[in-house]
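ARCHIVE CARD
SHELF: 3
SLOT: left
DATA:
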Amino acid sequence: MALLSINDPARARETTYTGPALLGLGFRPFYLLAAAFAAVSVPAWLASYYGFVTAPAIGLAWHMHEMVFGFVVAVVVGFLYTAARNWTGLWTPRGAHLGALAALWIAGRAAMLWAPAPLAALVDLAFLPLAAWPLYRVMRRADNRRNLFLVGLLGLLALANAAFHASAAGLLGMSAVRPIHAAIMIVVVIEAAIGGRVIPHFTANSVPGTAPVINPRLDRLALALAALAALAWIGAAPALVGVPLSLAAAAAQAWRLAGWKPMCTLRQPLLWVLHLSYAWIPAGFVLLALAQAGLAPLSAAVHVLAVGALGGLIVGMITRTALGHTGRPLKAGGSETAMYLMIQLGVLARLGAALATGSLREPLLLTAGALWSATFLLYAAVYAPRLFAARPDGREG
């Protein structure tokens, strides 16, 4: 069975790498760090929220910030480093350079817990620009203009992170939550852009006779509407503007997904997890429209996008890319299927907690947290030996 090619065929320039396997390519350290962090940070937040531990630093702002600028950003950087190696045939950071970036990411997580706020901001803010720069250099050297916009989106994430820290310090007259919501929508746009390339491609390659519909005009429309709906929401536009834009974005994303033939993937967990997780994007925009109209809690929309779309697609991609780039067949085993089921059940529980009133909310919230943590704990347990080990076929990756 063919192994993963994230996008364009690699124009490989073989060089010898003799360092630790864990630092051989971006996905290895960052997927493992992200999974381990996801597994422990949500239980830590819930323990603080319910008063089981006294941890003033672990508040709501920490939880929201670290899920996006800690967990999600690590996965995005690891994925893009790995993808850019395929797209350009040029090396993204590896060895000592990659190790230094991973250490900086770890320092950022530690600083957000224990350092004074100005120092925490300085350390945390350093990561994204230093991670984006080598990606930009590789894209420019290869004249890979098609994917340069992804570097720009990393830059927008860095600006959103700066706005969070400035707001938390009282330097901006806005809630610190708004930049985090902006960052979530930036990542949704990243996933919509990449998902539109890889999900139909994976489906066509893995399900014989399937012909997913790829409509470039619809793709551009769907991405534009998603960006406009996000801007309207983040910019606090009137509901008369935000609601129709969110509904239009939902319709375009659903239409796009329907053309990728999701019902043909039901027997292949590596595929259905991507289709099902992508479906949370239009669902999230519908809930966002309802929230802007005052008909649903905003938390429902935010968590459907953050846990369902971001979390689900992350689990689907960090298993798939790790299998392919560690030289293993692209086939989900029992562990992968369990991860996929748990993350989907987790988003249902979190949505239920957002919509519930009375005594149902707390058990649903705890269930969602437990399922999230178990998903990424299982990933770390199963994939850590693979990520630390060299490929059995001796190839790079």
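SLOT: right
DATA:
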Amino acid sequence: MSAAPTVVILGAGVSGLCTGIQLLKAGISSFTILEKSDRVGGTWYDNQYPGAACDVPSHFYCYSFEPNPEWSRKFSGQAEIQAYLQRCAEKYGLIPHIRFRTECAGASFDERKGVWRVRTSDGEELTTHVLVSGVGQLNRPHVPDLPGLADFEGAAFHSARWQHAHDLTGKRVAVIGNGASAIQFIPPVAKVAKQLTIFQRSANWVVPRGDYAYSERAKRIFRSFPWLLRLYRWYFYWQLEKNFLAFGGEGRIARMMEKGARGWLESAIPDAKLREVLTPDYRVGCKRILIDDDFYPALARPNVSVTTSEISRITRDAIETKDGASQPVDAIILATGFETTSFLAPMQIEGVDGKKLEEIWGPGAEAHLGLCVSGFPNFFMMYGPNTNLGHNSIIFMIEAQVRYTVQCIQALAQRGLRYLDVKPDVQERYNAELQRDLSHTAWAAGCKSWYKTASGKVTNNWSSFTVKYWWKTRRPKLEEFKRVPRT
């Protein structure tokens, strides 16, 4: 057997940490994790806005090999999730492998030597046999091109870069956007703001979260009976997995989900005019379904208003809309999501013959199993194209991807290979089938969402049940790769 390949992992979030842990479990310690921040967590470190929490039950939003009986709530908050990831990094000995405050600017593949040359933002170059991206899909905040935004004299920031130094108590606050982050921070902001105005482009389907705290007795039972904790975890898995039935077709399950969302809206919002504004005009699931208990009650407060008027420009102290109105504001919070369909940008990844990944992905990102791209040998992506979910826990998908990737890395050593490069016809067949399957789902319906490109190609979501993805990735088929031996 040849020596284990060297590995560089980009990002110390859920994906990067999971990859590092499984490499160590496989006896591979020749890896380095590059993290742009000063601690682990990825999106769970970046997003520190008030009310930030997961919308997947905590006992299923954790690693299968590291269950946590101490979760405080059914849906735990940002700080608790980040602390869990920190404990995992420390417990499994990852900290010595992490280089904090080190950001990847780009990487290029040296075909002759079979190595990746990774460039950091401060000009350093690292050489590695294998490059693994763990940066995910939700790491680059999207800031819209709003005329006059730079001239605004009050506080203005994106929710993913929350400026806690700005006290919003007694202020006139504008929120631009009403997606998954907005529905979490709007309720706490509404409690302290003098006036809160939400600029809504389109309504979202919202269902109640049903959150609750775990008692000390429940935690003690989970600690004492690990098998019960695992059974509880699988209960959540199957509860979530069945929801794909609502997105994969327009049958009874989809109608039931829409009926439930409408019922929650009617019970929480007494004002008929506001209910009309908050009722989506598209199929349930076409956009991300939002889960929250406090959002609708916050919108019913007398100091909160929702407007659908399009913004024309921002002045030094107000937001003007195309209907001629002007809304004086002291602070603007951008809840405008992330650059999701560009994936690895602004990093420049160059493969064989200097091919640039961003150019190959011009029509829309795609990969084999969301993991490998032909012409980019020994390069693996966690949470890559078409691996996002609308119905289950992304950590389940990430663990499947990590298992597949580690097996590929082991094959390099066991078979004396310089590199593995997925065959172009394999990638093409896989994505043709994937897009056919996606065309029948809610995500391909006629609404604009972060799941797809401007041309309508769904680049973010997986097309079926997660158990199907698990089956496809349970072990790599090496015959699907060009296998180049070491010389």
